[in-house]
Amino acid sequence: MLFQSVMFDFQAAEKLRLQEPVSDIGLEPLCAMINNNLRCYDLSTELSNSTMEALPQNYAEQINFEDTCKGFLDVAKEAVRQTVNVIFEDPGVQELVAKLYQKDWCEGLVTEYLVETFSDYFTDVKMYIEERSFRRFVEACLEETIVVYVDHLLMLRTYVKEETIERMRLDEDVLTDFFREYINVTKVGSRVRILGDLRELASAESVDSFTLIYTNILEHQPDCPPEVVEKLVALREGIPRKDAKEVAQDCKEIYENSLVDGNPPKKGFIFGRVKSLAPKSMWRR
Length: 285
Description:
With about 280 residues, the protein is mainly α. It contains 14 helices and no strands. The model is unreliable at about 280-285 (pLDDT under 50).
């Protein structure tokens, strides 16, 4: 149908625009794109329903509006992701993120300031987009925050100390307290949980502790490669090489035994996006 072709053309133009640098698009146009495409989704769904009801069944069966309608949701979803990128490409945010797990971070001069910046952006975004979209935006921002924190932890080149562990614990509280003001606390907890798990890994005292914690991580992040454990073990001072090798081997076996047809049973939201991990885990060679 002609109007389906027009809808596809519109979606293609929107997707092309979203390929531009977010600094060129801007926050307000991205928010407008979210609103417009969700509105188009609602209207196209109404049109689909009314058209299908009006047509005889043998004609209605020949028409598929599903892909057309879904296309608007896909554009809106990508626009939400790019809106989050506006925040993380902010020079001030990048400056703070670069200090993660460094001296300023240990002194409480990073995470607290980061959530203040988030708050300013959230105030602006909330004025521009509908509530349902705003919640999705906040969830996406939280997930990106967790990915960034995990990535920088795995890129550490200095040993983890007691003050590092304590600051990690405080970060979990700061992030949880901030994001729970905007979205369901259960959703916040399910995202922040991995930070606590990695903190426990970074402070584990025995081979059994490492393997138990890693097993628990795989229950909610099945694509967490054993390389993560290896990196955290390497950040621990005083762990005998023999124990480190045993942990690595045990976790490799645990991971491989969890695979289904050679792949994790499902993908989490973190480890496929963590830049410090090789695209293909060393264990899968």
